[in-house]
Amino acid sequence: MKKKSPLLLLTNRNAIAGLLSLVVITLYVANIGVQKNPLFTTNAAPEPKSLAQNSSAEKVATDIESIKFDEQGLIDHHFQSERAEYFRKQQSDSDSYSDDLFDEGDLFFSEPDDSREFLVRTTAPRFKLYAEGELVAEVEAKTAVGNASNSRTELIGDVTLLHHQHRSKLHTQRLMLNPVSKQVLTREQVELEGPNYKSSAKGLQGNVTDQRWQLLSDVKTVVQPR
Q: How many distinct structural domains can be found in the chain?
């Protein structure tokens, strides 16, 4: 029996290795083709992934009330809630919450967040916002999700903002709020109503203190003469 040449054996091995590599690459490409792109989910969850993965809160509190003051010692904002659930953030999701709720590239929500250890889900949240110690507006909703310091909060479900100084009302289903800077942002349908006008739009951003709203798209306004 003739022995096979070493060169022939090496050639056969290279051919087999190349064939296996081709099979692996083909399977990999086929797998990519059928998988959903995780960056563009069509049915985004209403709350951060960290909350959905935790079956129970690490801490629960009821009848929450918090008052924050500014550098001059004047009241800045007042927060109340019937119930608060604290969920410890998973390490793998450490940045997903801010990515989902706050676009770090946006003008209004580019401040660093130092309270990312816990996510807090509150029931019947209510904010009172002040400027120079004077009550400017009140915001309430069915629920809210934010960080432990309430410096970055998304209000969810029948969100209503009442502006006392301008006697106006804003209504939407989701509203991001920074109670310290008094800035708000939503990409949902929003309704605005004042003493002599009604407006609707898809998306809004602005500052509650001076009420300079920027309506983002599909703007409709009806002005009634006084």
A: 1
Residue 10 domain-assigned (yes or no) = no
Please report whether residue 27 resides in a domain: no
Cα separation, 68 vs 215, in Å, equals 29
Long-range CB contacts (< 8 A, 24+ apart) of 65-68?
66/150, 68/179, 68/180
User: How do strand 168-178 and strand 183-194 relate by DSSP bridges?
Assistant: antiparallel
Nearest to 184 by CA among 132, 115, 129: 129
Tens-digit pLDDT profile for residues 129-173: 999 999 999 999 999 998 877 778 999 999 999 998 888 999 999
Residue 94: inside a domain, yes or no? yes
167, 172, 176, 181 alpha-carbon torsion, rounded to 10°? -10
**168: enclosing H helix or E strand:** strand 168-178
Coarse DSSP helix, strand, coil percentages of the chain, rounded to the nearest 5 percent:
20, 45, 35
The pTM of this model reads 0.66
| H runs (alpha helix) in the chain | 6-34, 49-53, 96-101
- Domain containing 131 — which CATH number? 2.60.450.10
Map tokens 């709350």 to a residue: 47
DSSP H or E segment with residue 215? strand 212-215
List the domain range (segments joined by +) for residue 163.
Answer: 49-223
Residues of the chain whose pLDDT is less than 70? 1-55, 90-116
Q: What tens digit of pLDDT does each residue of 70-83 get?
A: 999 999 999 999 99
